[in-house]
Amino acid sequence: VRFGLRTTAARARHDAVSAERAGFDVVWVDDGACNGAAVAASLAAHTSGIRVVIGARVGDAHPIELAEEVAVADLALGGRTVLAVSPAEGAVDRLSESLDLLLEAFGSHPFRHPGPHWPAPANLAGNVFNLEQRIRVTPPPAQLELPVWVVGAAGRSAANDRALGVVFDVDEAVDEIRAWWRATSTSSPAQVRRMRRSLLWSPTIDGGRLALAAAVDELRELRDAGDLDLVVVDVPAGHGGELADDQLDDLLDDISREVRPRLQLDRLPPGLDEHWVEHRSHHEQHHPEGGHHG
Amino acid sequence: VRVGVGLWTLQSTQAAPSNLARAYLRVPEDARRVEALGYDSLWLAEHRFWYDGWCPQPLVVVAAAAASTERLRFGTAMLLLAQHEPARFARLAVTTAELSGGRLELGVGLGHRDAEFDGLGLRRDRRGARMTDALDVLLASDGCPPVWIGGMAPAALERGATRGTGFVLPQTLYPSEIAEHVATIRGHAAAAGVEPGPIGMVKDCWVVGGAGGPAADEIRERFRWHYREEAGSWWVLKGDSTGFQRPELLDRQLQRVYDTALIGVPDDVIASLNELRDAGVDLVTLRFWFDVTAGDEAWESMALLAAEALDDEGALR
């Protein structure tokens, strides 16, 4: 299981650097009050390996503009970009069309999209000179297949229909994840193998630190409910949308050293868990002030 | 007069194929190099739906490159504002301005290719009204960067001068025409009761005299090659034909482009820059960087001029 961190535009640089240093695989920035593609691209200079998810609402603006922004961000990031979409407020009925246009736009061939909301090219009255019957959105992303994922239950059938990655939102219960996984892996077993499955997860903070044993148990259950590939850590509930830098660094450290290793295999060989516990208590003895390893 | 260089367009053309993934990764490195040479700013441009991949979202590139530099400013000449959704674009501009620490100069124009508007579901003949709307949304945004308007059509003058924006003059003006255009802009601003904004200008440029670099005639030929492709494909001449379908008109119209380029030894180019300053130009973007010139020869040419012409602030000495 890979791990990611969802952050805000204002904190993106600090959090992306911290997450990469802590061994995380993914940092997630949202496209909203700030432009997500620009924030993602600005991380190119400060990170070198971590993947950058752009979380974008679609349906309220022309998808080609978003496709161009994401393709350029992917080029700036050397092919490290993922696009995670969810429907904008009141725009669920435009999600499928948005996805189809985005997927066409990330190809490298001319296409014609029939609409209904965004026919492309539109061949409008008044546009007359040297018009195209099919358009080519340029440039294509750096990646041959830029991952496009769909966030939340409202878009799940659109994701299923197109074999796109799914992201379970923070409010989706484990039983719902299990039910989706059972149904989809039964009905479309070949397709479901190509769909990455991710989870936005808001951890419980107890006395200022992550409740480790509970987190491991919770994530093991979630992992196995949907054969999850990626857990994206969202800001813990009750922290007003934000953690202080040192709290965040503690959280990243706890997840990378105490949670992540215990989630990778089906089981651990006898003695390994105890070895890790011993290492932690040894570390805490020598660094009683807390703080991070390394 | 501040001196910037451009235009980073990220094209892979028939004449100068390049790997776009590599070209994009090199922009932050290019920006550091431009900063080290002492120029004021690095400029990009926008087009879309074209065979060579011309960058359609230059501000996303600015966001990446600004993070690798400290002093250098970034500009667009031009960004096609009328092709963007106004509110979404205003957020992109403000985000980029913030990410760059206030180092963005936003030059905006209408765009002219029907195919670009049509691909986005827009009518080209309504681009003026859309431009006005987008400009108002942009200028009303908290954190809006300095805005420069391209073009000298009466509507552009009116739109910019009444809002106090800067202007980017057409590159094809002869020196004798520039002062007249500057006076027109200042007149419009005065009539509207606003402080006139700064005046910018893009000039095609090449400095010869380095060891082994191309001669002036060779550079003129490369510029000609570049512009014939662009104008031949895109310009509409006599109302109904593309440039390539009217070769005699194409070459006549492009003659001004070739004649107004600044090509010469450093002293020649510096003399021209002084002329521009005297005519009222505040910022000149020297276009050394074309598909057909990008690379070592352009770096040498830019370095020759920087050494002779620039002060510590990236302005003409």
Give a brief outline of the structure:
The complex is a heterodimer of chains A (294) and B (317). Chain A has helices at 12-21, 36-42, 63-76, 95-105, 156-162, 174-187, 189-192, 212-226, 245-263, 272-286; strands at residues 2-7, 26-31, 51-58, 81-87, 148-151, 165-168, 197-201, 205-206, 209-210, 230-233.
Structural account:
- The complex is a heterodimer of chains A (294) and B (317).
- Chain A is α/β, with parallel strands linked by helices and 294 residues long.
- Chain A is 39% helix and 16% strand.
- Chain A has an eight-stranded parallel beta barrel with strand order 1-2-3-4-5-6-7-10, surrounded by five helices. Chain A has a two-stranded antiparallel ribbon with strand order 8-9.
- In chain A, helix 8 crosses helix 9.
- Chain A is globular, with a radius of gyration of 21 Å.
- The longest helix of chain B has 19 residues.
- In chain B, helix 6 links the parallel strand 5 and strand 6.
- Chain B is α/β, with parallel strands linked by helices.
- In chain B, the strands form two sheets. An eight-stranded parallel beta barrel of chain B has the order 1-2-3-4-5-6-7-11, surrounded by eight helices.
- The radius of gyration of chain B is 19 Å and the shape is globular.
- The termini of chain B are close together.
- Helices cover 46% and strands 17% of the residues of chain B.
- Chains A and B meet through helix 2 and helix 3 of A and helix 1, helix 2, helix 3 and helix 4 of B.
Helix and strand arrangement:
The complex is a heterodimer of chains A (294) and B (317).
Chain A: E1 2-7, H1 12-21, E2 26-31, H2 36-42, E3 51-58, H3 63-76, E4 81-87, H4 95-105, E5 148-151, H5 156-162, E6 165-168, H6 174-187, H7 189-192, E7 197-201, E8 205-206, E9 209-210, H8 212-226, E10 230-233, H9 245-263, H10 272-286
Parallel strand pairs in A: 1-2, 1-10, 2-3, 3-4, 4-5, 5-6, 6-7, 7-10
Antiparallel strand pairs in A: 8-9
Helix pairs in contact in A: 1-9, 2-3, 3-4, 6-8, 8-9
Chain B: E1 2-8, H1 20-37, E2 41-44, H2 58-66, E3 73-80, H3 86-99, E4 104-109, H4 114-119, H5 127-139, E5 147-150, H6 154-161, E6 166-169, H7 175-192, E7 199-207, H8 216-234, E8 236-237, E9 241-242, H9 247-260, E10 262-264, H10 266-278, E11 283-287, H11 296-309
Parallel strand pairs in B: 1-2, 1-11, 2-3, 3-4, 4-5, 5-6, 6-7, 7-10, 7-11
Antiparallel strand pairs in B: 8-9
Helix pairs in contact in B: 1-2, 2-3, 3-5, 6-7, 8-9, 10-11
